[in-house]
Amino acid sequence: MSLPDVFARICEVLNNPVSTAQEAAQVIGMDQSLSARLLRLVNSAFYGFPTKVDTLSRAVTIVGSRQLTTLALGISVVSMFRDLPPGLTDVKSVWKHSVACGLAASALAGCAACAPESGERLFVAGLLHDVGRLVMYRNLPGFSAEALRMARRDKTLVRTAELRVFGFDHAALGQALLAEWRFPESLALAVGHHHGPGRQGWVPDTAIVHVADVVVNAMRMGSSGEYYVPPLSPDAFALLGVPAKTLGLVVDKVDRQVEAVLSVFLPDEAHPA
């Protein structure tokens, strides 16, 4: 799978440590649809700015060039998966789950005293954490349906069934895909290890996306096809260094934001509960 040229250019800007804010705005501005959706996200409940941000240059100034280009990458991928084969899962529910996971990851980043600029990166990591499953659904619907049936029949996680059917799971596929698209390594790793640590153990980004995914699954905020709530790793949660009551605050924040932010990605759609 390949991304359009404009998205490759966005990756180049994001991966270049000396790229300027003007270059970021120029590259994003090459795609009018992407620019419009990005401005809608900047003006949504995700930020809650008191006044409207009406130009890309102003958005870059307020949000930051690296943060904005990271958001542009996330939006670009969502646009590729607006439709899925019928009968597997509901696309609106999938993206509600993904948006909620992104919002939860961003909120957890703030609570865990991560660097200020990590909120957008972790939002996109949460947003795209199940992109590998969407590729499975779109390209191999028959095998995907078999994995979903197996998970329900055996009362197990869909990820476990994927390993049996495909020999790999959606997390590994998502990581490989983001690496192929030249996404920042931290994003690819967070997607690839949101169900379990890599060889170096849990790191903050992967731990945050893991906890966000478990919380959103537990609250049934949309679904990517999972029937059961994945187990929460105590080590991942401990790494965040936040009290358990923080999860309730995160859930409240996501619940307030999710519909408004989802409307940026799926406009004019009725959103499932």
UniProtKB/TrEMBL annotation:
SUPFAM superfamilies: HD-domain/PDEase-like
InterPro entries: HD/PDEase_dom, HDIG_dom, HDOD, RNase_Y/CdgJ
HDOD domain sequence ranges: 1-197
Chain coiled-coil ranges: none
Protein name: Putative signal transduction protein
